[in-house]
Design a protein that fits this description.
Blueprint: E1 2-6, H1 20-34, E2 38-43, E3 52-55, H2 71-84, E4 90-93, E5 110-113, H3 123-129, E6 135-137, E7 151-154, E8 175-180, H4 187-197, E9 201-206, H5 212-226, E10 247-248
Parallel strand pairs: 1-2, 1-4, 2-3, 4-5, 5-6, 6-7, 8-9
Antiparallel strand pairs: 9-10
Length: about 250
């Protein structure tokens, strides 16, 4: 099959550092190519893929200090998609909302995977209006927030089998939180669990500008309360894929 994968432009595919959606898109794209499909990836120009790459920005937008507004770059990408849409059997979108009006005439050839939160107030009216869009959830629980929409199914985020081999005997002696510091990721729960179990906690995460206030007012005070030597420790704001490093934030 001829398949288009349309990724967000915030991070490269795969991301150099943080970027959950882009990493999943990379896994999916590479596996589809491995299985013999003709795959085209619409992504940032610094992406690495065995598929055909259509670069829609020179760099991942989050890595480019000159980028102020990401929307124009995504509109450019959607125009690239529109021009090539008839070449594909399936167009798989991972960019939330922007493509909905564009695909009206070929909705039946599209899939939209919803990688993020669905409990925000603007979500329900949007997908109620564009109710013909075939949607894919990443968990069955996620679907509870949108009931009267066109769910095509649930596909859990997959990982390569050899990426995280089972370790029945854990020897690290610490807990880990990987992701970003934001309310929906609940780093406060991770800190509470570590404190209650008496285990060190390593946090490898980033803090977006939108979450700076949450970090300063909610999470940093908890961190400092449980880690008196916090000021002399390292807080890793961006985590690489191959290893998790960070600060020990729990009481010992």
């Amino acid at each position: 099959m001829k398949i288009a994968q349309i990724a967000p432009l915030y991070e490269s595919v795969p991301p150099r550092l943080y970027g959950g959606t882009e990493r999943v898109v990379s896994y999916l794209t590479e596996e589809l190519v491995r299985r013999g499909h003709d795959v085209t990836l619409f992504a940032s120009g610094d992406s690495k893929t065995s598929a055909k790459l259509v670069p829609c920005s020179d760099l991942a937008l989050r890595m480019n200090p000159a980028v102020i507004d990401p929307v124009p770059y995504h509109i450019i990408m959607l125009e690239e998609v529109r021009r090539k849409a008839n070449e594909f059997d399936i167009l798989h979108f991972h960019i939330d909302f922007l493509h909905a009006p564009l695909v009206h005439d070929f909705t039946q050839r599209t899939l939209t995977t919803l990688h993020g939160r669905l409990d925000l107030p603007h979500i329900v009216p949007f997908y109620r209006f564009f109710r013909e869009l075939p949607l894919v959830a990443v968990s069955d629980d996620q679907r509870n927030y949108l009931r009267s929409v066109n769910w095509a199914g649930t596909v859990h985020h997959g990982l390569p089998r050899d990426l995280l081999p089972l370790q029945p005997k854990v020897s690290g002696g610490y807990l880990a939180f990987l992701g970003r510091i934001s309310p929906e990721k609940r780093p406060d729960h991770a800190i509470e669990i570590a404190a209650r179990t008496g285990k060190p906690l390593k946090i490898a995460a980033k803090v977006d500008r939108a979450d700076q206030l949450y970090w300063q007012e909610k999470i940093r005070p908890i961190v400092e309360a449980h880690a008196p030597r916090y000021s002399r420790q390292k807080f890793l704001k961006r985590a690489g894929a191959s290893r998790a490093r960070g600060a020990r934030f729990a009481r010992r």
